[in-house]
Design goal:
Elements lengths: L29 E3 L3 H10 L2 E3 L16 E3 L4 H13 L6 E7 L2 E7 L19
Parallel strand pairs: 1-2, 1-3
Antiparallel strand pairs: 4-5
Length: 127
């Protein structure tokens, strides 16, 4: 507004201290991903970490109440999650879907699969 040059980036380096604990430490029992970022975050938080297996059924046990899963191949991941959801191995599936400046949070329970009376909507209409 003053006619001055715009700031197009900010570089932060050095200094600062790591917080003592992570914000989601009590939210998850296990982090499953293919990412050095998530592996480091899990290690820093004291949460168990493992790579995404081909079959998700081994992850879905009573000892892992809250699993954070990074979906890498979205189509195949949804297909892998559908069977345990139908078998009620998953009691609630929460998806955080981010795109551009928006985030859609979908909470799915096994009964939601059988809501055939709902019409399908494009994802952009769910904002």
């Amino acid at each position: 507004a003053k006619g001055e040059m715009a700031v197009n980036s900010i570089w932060l380096s050095g200094g600062g201290q790591m917080p003592q604990s992570a914000a989601f430490k009590n939210d998850a029992d296990l982090v499953v991903a293919h990412s050095a970022f998530y592996e480091g975050l899990a290690k820093w938080s004291g949460i168990q970490y493992q790579s995404v297996p081909a079959d998700l059924n081994g992850l879905l046990s009573d000892e892992n109440q809250h699993v954070r899963l990074q979906l890498t191949d979205v189509q195949n991941s949804f297909e892998l999650l559908l069977t345990p959801l139908k078998n009620r191995t998953i009691k609630q599936l929460t998806l955080n879907l981010g795109f551009y400046e928006k985030c859609l949070v979908a909470e799915i329970t096994p009964l939601d699969i059988y809501k055939f009376w709902r019409s399908n909507k494009p994802i952009l209409n769910l904002t």
